[in-house]
Amino acid sequence: MNTKTLKSRAIVYGVLTILAVGMVIPFVWMLLASFKTSNEVFSIPMKLLPKVWHRENYQEIWKKIPLLTFFVNTTKLTFITTVVQVLTSCFAAYGFAKVKFKGRDILFVIYVTTIAVPWQVYMVPQFALMGKMHLTNSHLGLILMQAFSAFGVFLMRQFMLGIPGELLEAARIDGLNEYGIFARIALPLVKPGIATLIIFTFVNIWNDFMGPMIYINSTELKTIQLGIRMFISQYGADYALIMAASVCSLIPILIIFMLCQRWFIEGIAAGGVKG
Amino acid sequence: MTSRQKRELKTNLVGYSFVIPNFIGYFIFIFVPVCFSFVLSVMKWDGSDAPMQFVGFQNFVKLASDSTFIISFKNTIWYAVFTVPLTLVASLLIAVMLNSKIKGIVAYRTAFFFPYVASLVAVGAVWNMLFQPEFGPINEILRALGVANPPKWCASTDWAMWVVIIVSVWKYMGYYMVVYLAALQGISHDLYEAAEIDGATGLKKLRYITIPMLTPTTFFVVIMLTIQCFKVFDLIYVMTGGGPGRATNVLVNHIYNAAFVDFKFGYASASALVLFAMVLVITLIQLWGEKKFTDFV
């Protein structure tokens, strides 16, 4: 390696490291602030590390607002929505990709028509209809409005289309019925698709703010994202506690992200997952 | 019934049984609301049990003279005009650097990608503190660097939109970086080797091979980013609430306020259809481009 390439390598590492540190700073600041006193968070001159590590901040947040209830609610919503989304999407995708039934194309066109319509466009009429069905201010309503996206069906259908027809035909000849083929042959082959759909649904629902904000009024039904907002509006000056609550809300996502990073990357790289 | 008809009937029933669970939910909770939004846009309705009233295109006429709507529209375009190119350039450059056989790529990639999966509410709260005008660390650093009167950021009508743009780029860049990384893997090494024989250096290779070869990806990224910018809301709601004044009020703010603050559901739907029209135009450009670039690749 000559000095010139060596020098340009050093520049690349230098620039990347500076940028990466810049990206992470808000999270580091959040974590450090969560151990400070609220006065210390904005002390001038700025102190990076807390003088005393106030671990009790992480006990206090659970007492100030019903954070535990919010965690339980969010976990429940995330879990149920993800399960319903993944199961029904896989089912429908198999039907659309591998069973030649009458009216299939028309049904599929109905899915296609809405793929370009962002949720923000129909959130108002959707809310109005949910109100008519008495599904607003309920977890059931939130689950139903988020569990049946066309996106899940499209993603899984792409994976299902990749399964060779001969494989399924062979199974049919061996006497397996269509449900058996779905469960024993198709599903194992689309595992990467399922993993992608699971984590993206999980992260979207866990982080969702607008859905719960529009649909949920009762405190006992609120989610963790609404909880942090509640914290900010009620204890606006308790910066340290707001940061502690924020850290708590990020931990599950961080864990999922660390464990499943590969599926995030592959899902996006495959071009199947929308931003 | 012949045995063939029987078999067909059975296939049909099996097919329906697979599709129906998702289809029913999708039809009721997504397809019907989408159709309903067109109906609602020509109605006057407060969302209560009182009947709707047909008003023709009045809602759209009203939009044209509603100063808040016009500002929201302009702000949305303004936000997109800066966020799209900044995010694009940042994600492209980082992807190119990461692709140059870097050690520890996973650690770097994690740092750039994590903001994308982090919750907006938490992230918005911490950025608000970082940008806090009097005591926030960003202004403290600026003062230390000799800026006597640093911007008031989210409290200033001139700067609030810039804060939103900066945080957007920070948050969404990682996603497009991954898209670019995947595309970069697809560029053949032969091209670079040939260029090296001809004496091309790093920057020349970037300019004459990498960027042209990435054209279809860049097109895709521009489309995705533009649509994402048009429907921005959460980030703005969390950071500025559309303020100060109407400085960061975007289209979805307008839809949200019309429906859930003023209870004008028809008017909100008309506003939403404007958003839909904007997204539709971009989608049509995408369809046109996809045809073009399939020849290109």
General description of the model:
- The complex is a heterodimer of chains A (275) and B (297).
- Chain A is built from 14 helices and no strands.
- Chain A has 275 residues and is mainly alpha-helical.
- Chain A has a single domain (57-269), classed as MetI-like fold (Orthogonal Bundle).
- In chain A, helix 1 crosses helix 14.
- Chain A starts with a helix and ends in a 6-residue tail after the last helix.
- Chain B has 13 helices and 2 strands, in the order αββαααααααααααα.
- Chain B is flat.
- Chain B has one domain (54-296): MetI-like (MetI-like fold), CATH 1.10.3720.10.
- Chain B has 297 residues and is an all-alpha fold.
- In chain B, helix 1 (3-40) crosses helix 13 and helix 10 (215-230) runs antiparallel to helix 13.
- The interface between A and B is large, with 98 and 97 residues.
Question: Quick summary of this structure?
Answer:
The complex is a heterodimer of chains A (275) and B (297). With 275 residues, chain A is mainly alpha-helical.
CATH architecture of chain B: Orthogonal Bundle
User: What count of structural domains of chain B?
Assistant: 1
CATH topology of chain A: MetI-like fold
**Which word captures the global form of chain B?**
flat
Spatial sequence of strands, sheet with the most strands of chain B: 1-2
| Tally of individual domains of chain A | 1
Low-confidence stretches of chain A: none
Architecture blueprint of SSEs:
The complex is a heterodimer of chains A (275) and B (297).
Chain A: H1 3-33, H2 38-41, H3 57-64, H4 67-98, H5 104-113, H6 119-132, H7 139-146, H8 150-161, H9 165-173, H10 178-189, H11 191-207, H12 210-215, H13 224-234, H14 239-269
Chain B: H1 3-40, E1 43-44, E2 53-54, H2 58-65, H3 67-98, H4 105-117, H5 120-130, H6 137-144, H7 160-185, H8 189-197, H9 202-213, H10 215-230, H11 234-239, H12 251-261, H13 265-296
